[in-house]
Structures are given as structure tokens and as C-alpha cells.
Amino acid sequence: MEKREQLYAGKAKSVYTTDDSKVLILYFRNDTSAFDGKKIEQLDRKGQVNNQFNAYIMGQLEAAGIETHFIQQLNAQESLVKRLTMIPLECVVRNITAGSICRRLGIEEGMDLNPPTFEFFLKNDALGDPMVNEYHIHSFGWAQAEHVEKMKALTFKVNDVLKNLFAQGNMLLVDYKLEFGLYEDRIILGDEFTPDGCRLWDMETRMKLDKDRFRQGLGGVVEAYEEVGHRLGINFL
Ligand code: ADP
Ligand code: UDP
User: Fold this and answer.
1) Cβ 69 under 6 angstroms from ligand 2
2) pLDDT reported for residue 203
3) Are 90 and 78 part of one and the same domain?
């Protein structure tokens, strides 16, 4: 597989074309951002930890019957994926309150949500990724109705699989964000699943093991991501 030109550089990953027009390379950088890119730092080893973490989770999701864009890990910081036409929406499921829902609704952190709740956000950095509803999605044509249903169903299926997986490592999956795209007219899971895009707490102490350590300046960010990986049985390079 030959790497060609850079297609896109996001806040944490860069995307490259290859000699196969249906295949892209995702390069996981050490850049870590929060607050819509207002706080940015380079964290040593984060790119390689997230690349390997993502490869493991995507494998677990595939094994559970959830189609993903992931093809294979190439090296420490790169993976090969199917090129998708991304839907410009973020799908968030919350099992426990934290983050923006607490600020928005004036709710304390740490409340169990039964049933878990679901939110759509528009992927738009300039607007700070505003929350949108299904009427907005339909009226503005961001996704077709059947694709919206599929994204919701797949996001909840991921919840069933990953809540169990993290529970086996004595962790609570508090919330997470997924992105989907179209591949040959099918909605499949794209982007990444790493502690950059979810919240994970130790089940007993509720210690934060995710990007909130960076957002809140708690330190030990990459060490916490590695701890999560070790609890899942990942042996980092
Ligand atoms: P952001 O764009 O939010 O700053 P990243 O730094 O993670 O995020 O950049 C990765 C970009 O690549 C995102 O815009 C994401 O939607 C896009 N992407 C992820 N997977 C694929 C894929 N399989 N095909 C095309 N684009 C993808
Ligand atoms: N999230 C993300 N990218 C975003 C926004 C949110 O990965 O652009 C993740 C975030 O890490 C958390 C979940 O989605 O696991 C819900 O985020 P929330 O809406 O609470 O926003 P935050 O407090 O992180 O700004």
C-alpha cells in the first residue's frame, strides 16, 4: 500500500490517500485538543497508544457483528481504513451524566441514566459542534432518515458491546462519541474509538481514565489511556 497525499488534517489525526482509491491511511498524532481546539498540547506516545487502542476496539466491534471502516494497523501510529463519505454528525450515547449535558441542563456529574440517552451534534468546529435534533438533520439534509435510524441503532449496539467489555476491566463506560460514513451506500462505523472520545471511570473509585484528565489538567493522561488498555489485555508496543 503506497501512501499518497494528505487529504485532511484534523485536530488529532491526519488522513492520507493511498494508491487504492477506496482505502485511506489514518495517522494518529500526539496532538491533544479540548474546548474546541482552544487547548492543544502534544502528549508523548498518545498517537501510538490511541492507534493500538483503536485497532483493538474496532476488532472487538467487528467480532460482535458491527461493520467498521478498520482494515488493519500498519505501524505504531498508522492504520488502514476504508474511505467513507462521512456523515457530518457526532452520535453520543450517555450512560452516566458528565460533560456538556451537566452544563446544559444544570445536572450533577455521575447520575446513572436509565435508559441511556442519545444526542446528535453537528460536526462544525467554527460553531463549536452544536447539538442538533432529527428534524434539523432532515430539514438540512445532513443524513437520510434510514441512515439516521441505522446510526442510532449501531451506536446503541456499540454500547451493549463496550459497556460489557469495559466492565470486565472494572471500568464504567460513561459516554462516548461515534462518527459514521457511507461505504457503497451502507452506513458503517468510521473515525476512532479511544479514550480521546469517550469517558471511562474506575468502577469503584470513579477515577477518570479518559480525556477529562487533559481537559481538567489532572495529569497522567497517556498513562491513564495505557491503564485502560492494560485492563483490557492490550500489550502496547
Ligand atoms: P477532527 O476532524 O474532528 O478534528 P480528527 O483529527 O480525528 O478529527 O480527524 C480525522 C478526520 O477524518 C475526521 O474529520 C473524520 O471525520 C475523518 N474520517 C475518519 N474516518 C474516515 C474514513 N474512513 N473516511 C473518510 N474520513 C474519515
Ligand atoms: N466528544 C468527542 N468529540 C467532540 C465532542 C465530544 O469525542 O467533538 C466525546 C467526549 O469525549 C465525551 C462525549 O463525546 O466522551 C460527550 O461529550 P460532551 O458532549 O459531554 O462534551 P464535552 O464535555 O466533552 O465538551
Assistant:
1) no
2) 98
3) no
